[in-house]
Amino acid sequence: MIASSTLHVSPRTLELVIPGRRPLIIDLSISDAEIAVRTGASYSASDAEIDEWKTRQQEVTTAVLKLKRERDFDVDGAEAEWKIGSGIVEIYL
Q: Does residue 87 sit within a domain?
């Protein structure tokens, strides 16, 4: 899976594509309103699951908006580290 995954970093965009998983795309060049819309996709589940999901989506939106206000990504210094067995990819920009 790692060998066929791709990570693309530009000054305002990060895109991580892992086969069989939903791609992670962070585009800091879009408006705040569009960021909020994109991180708030629809979901169908129980009320408790929906409440938990909404809380998580608000956290994601807040994190992306904070990231947008930081500096551009360091394209030349970007690194990624796979935590084998844990399902975690750490990306340093």
A: yes
DSSP state of 21: S
With respect to residue 1, please indicate whether it lies within any of the assigned structural domains.
no
pLDDT band at 40 (very low <50, low <70, confident <90, very high): low
pTM: 0.66
Alpha-carbon gap, residue 53 to 27, rounded angstroms: 22
Residue 65 lies inside a defined structural domain of this protein: yes
Q: Mapping DSSP to helix (H, G, I), strand (E, B) and coil, where does residue 86 land?
A: coil
Give start and end residues of each alpha helix (H) in 1-93.
Answer: 32-38, 47-68
The mean of the pLDDT values for the chain is 83
d(CA 10, CA 27): 9
Number of domains in the chain: 1
Residue with tokens 């569009």: 34
User: What is the span of the domain harbouring residue 47?
Assistant: 6-92
